[in-house]
Design brief:
Elements: E1 5-10, H1 18-27, E2 32-34, H2 43-46, H3 51-65, E3 70-76, H4 79-89, E4 94-100, H5 119-130, H6 136-143, H7 149-158, H8 164-168, E5 179-185, H9 193-203, E6 207-211, H10 217-220, H11 222-240
Parallel strand pairs: 1-2, 1-3, 3-4, 4-5, 5-6
Helix pairs in contact: 3-4, 6-7
Length: 241
């Protein structure tokens, strides 16, 4: 990885930076694994967290650990919502975004807009009424597909509520001059290929790669994912030269 930029890994909903920790240390030493804010807060408090709070927290982490260098974001799942919004709050800082099974709505729309019908219309009501943390069985069968039992147990135990606003807030972003890559996860039960295809159409990536993996390839297929990311980062480095 070039010394001219810092690689920042962002995790998906309900998770934390631990999903990227071993992967980043093995394959991309010197990178940053950033967590969403207030992982330990209770459900009632988290309902009040705005999308801007997520973005500010991640921005502060980036500026603390990489104050002088530009960054490339590796955005897993819904963290692309935050990563895209950061192009507005950190203008000129974000020089590349690589989505891994990532949710990319049109600018001016929200996460729900990437879902197929009827989920596009049902999920806002369901998450508002019941919260954003699915039952343990759904987490295990969708998020943890392809993982060994002990890893799946850890994911289920550690899964955290997110704010409804992370899903429902409309985002604004500007991708001019930003390198874009997308890793499509072909066996993803949590964010299916139909939604990923909508995201790809919205994102218009310079590079698209496919990986026969479930929702958490950094845990189930680390070598294969690292190989894809290295290829995309080389393409980014060639682009900026």
């Amino acid at each position: 990885m070039s010394a001219d930029y810092t690689l920042v890994f962002l995790h998906g909903a309900g998770l934390s930076s631990y999903i990227w920790k071993d992967f980043s240390q093995q394959y991309f030493p010197g990178s940053i694994c950033a967590s969403f804010p207030l992982r330990e807060s209770n459900k009632a408090f988290k309902r009040k967290i705005a999308l801007e709070d997520y973005c500010q927290f991640i921005a502060e982490t980036i500026l603390k650990h990489s104050p002088d260098r530009q960054v490339v974001l590796i955005c897993h799942s819904i963290s692309a919502i935050v990563g895209l919004q950061l192009t507005k709050s950190l203008p000129g800082k974000i020089k590349g975004i690589i989505g891994v099974g990532a949710s990319v709505p049109h600018s001016g729309r929200n996460f729900f807009s990437t879902l197929p019908i009827p989920q596009r219309f049902l999920m806002p009501w369901i998450t508002r009424l019941t919260g954003t943390k699915p039952p343990a069985k759904i987490i295990r069968n969708s998020l943890c597909a392809g993982l060994d039992a002990s890893t799946a147990d850890k994911i289920v135990r550690a899964y955290s509520d997110e704010s409804y606003h992370l899903y429902a807030s409309k985002i604004q972003y500007d991708l001019a001059g930003i390198y874009r890559g997308y890793v499509k996860l072909l066996s993803d039960n949590a964010y299916p290929c139909s939604s990923q295809e909508v995201s790809i159409a919205n994102f218009q990536p310079h590079s698209i790669e496919e990986l026969k993996s479930g929702h958490l390839p950094m845990l189930s297929h680390p070598y294969e994912l690292a190989t894809i990311l290295e290829s995309m980062l080389l393409a980014y480095e060639r682009k900026i030269k």
